[in-house]
Task: structure prediction
Amino acid sequence: MSVVSPCIGQCQLDEGGHYCTGCQRTRDEIGAWSGMSDAGKKAVWARLLSLKPAVRQKVCEACGAGFGCGNGGKDGSCWCNDLPNVLPPTPGVADCLCPDCLKQKLAAAYQARALDCPL
Result:
């Protein structure tokens, strides 16, 4: 099986024209992809997977507040990684919630399962 492309169909070069803002590959990686060996493609994937996610500004679906997604956590990752998990995940949330709304949703999920919420 061939190594699949990291392209996500949101192709646009950064302001400097060096890398794609969608898949994060460099222009050279994009141009060479079809001729790369599987080992070369895996090396590109390894580099991409080691990148920190870009910080994005989002709007909470629940309350409409703007917030940053992708940073603020204890280890430098997204702030939401510091919150407790709820398993199974709660269905019906199409995208991120702001910190306050996500904490409320987690607390409600714990309460619905008759569990003590660690927040």
Remarks:
- DSSP finds three helices and two strands in the chain.
- The longest strand covers residues 56-59.
